[in-house]
Amino acid sequence: MCSNHIGCKFPRFFPPQHQPHQPGIEYIMTPRPVFEPPLCAQYQTTKRLLNKVALITGGDSGIGRAVACAYAKEGADIAIVYLNEHVDAEGTKSRIKKLGRRCLTIPINIGVEENSKIIIQEVMNHFGKLDILVNNAAVLYYNNSIEEVSSKQLEWTFRINVFSYFYLTKAALPYMKPGGSIINTSSIVAFNPPYGISLDYEASKGAIANFTINLARSLVSRGIRVNGVAPGETWTPLIPAGLPADKVAVWGSKTPMGRAAQPFEIAPAYVFLASNESSYMSGQTIHMYS
């Protein structure tokens, strides 16, 4: 075990485990990811996002769930998009409602362009506005070499990890007003690739980093900021769903901190980028790894 917070202990190693389907299910993971700060790691919320509406893809679990709960604590209403992980999504929705905020769950395939319009329309019908778009959902397939990456897998990885970011941004922009914020989830592998475990995934995260910079430049005149977060090794459903059990067991153990991050440790960066505290930041990516 590794202690980085007084009174908190987080695992350095994990029981070997693998899930056969993407993008992964959180409630069957051992141990479950920590999506809210333990008592010793909590910080004072100041309602920085009061009455904002945030749309988060992959908001049912992992980093997306942590961001959804952090936003709710800051006063935002939440729409979460997910594929078919209904138990995880209902758990996130229940927590957000207990925090006193509204939550809309939308199960849908974000890899289909037409679905992005359906998503945005549901958000507008339910909340009447959209202030924050968090493009976060992803898939990860393990491979040792480029020969193992089929054209079908390559296209699907980019369709979820990159194309969906384009699709949802295009669909959302007509409804986003000056002061709006778009936040894209990139990865350590876009800037400092230490793994070589998934060429298509790593290439997609590099594309997201570039997309973030250039989208920021194209939207600055409209008063909409675009930034990114690049997490390192984090304990989310994507890991047991994408990696072999033996690699899952040691996930994060070789980082300088000696363990994988927990989702709640990544979420504050998304709060900062969505709030007025980052009003002069656009085209930037916050690196969240040791």
Per-chain topology:
Blueprint (H helix, E strand, L loop, with lengths): L1 E4 L2 E3 L42 E5 L4 H12 L3 E6 L3 H13 L4 E5 L5 H15 L4 E4 L15 H22 L8 E5 L13 H21 L5 E7 L6 H5 L2 H5 L13 H12 L10 E4 L2
Parallel strand pairs: 3-4, 3-6, 4-5, 6-7, 7-8, 8-9
Antiparallel strand pairs: 1-2
Helix pairs in contact: 1-8, 3-4, 4-5
How would you describe what is shown here?
The chain has 290 residues and is α/β, with parallel strands linked by helices. It has one domain (44-288): Rossmann fold. Helices cover 36% and strands 15% of the residues. It has eight helices and nine strands. It has helices spanning 62-73, 86-98, 113-127, 151-172, 199-219, 238-242, 245-249, 263-274, and strands spanning 2-5, 8-10, 53-57, 77-82, 103-107, 132-135, 181-185, 225-231, 285-288. The strands form two sheets. It has a seven-stranded parallel sheet, with helices on both faces. The protein has a two-stranded antiparallel ribbon with strand order 1-2. Helix 1 (62-73) packs across helix 8 (263-274), helix 3 runs parallel beside helix 4 and helix 4 (151-172) packs parallel to helix 5. The longest helix has 22 residues, at 151-172. It starts with a strand and ends with a strand. The mean pLDDT is 94. This is General stress protein 39. Its EC number is 1.-.-.-. It is an enzyme of class 1 (oxidoreductase). GO terms for molecular function: oxidoreductase activity, acting on CH-OH group of donors.
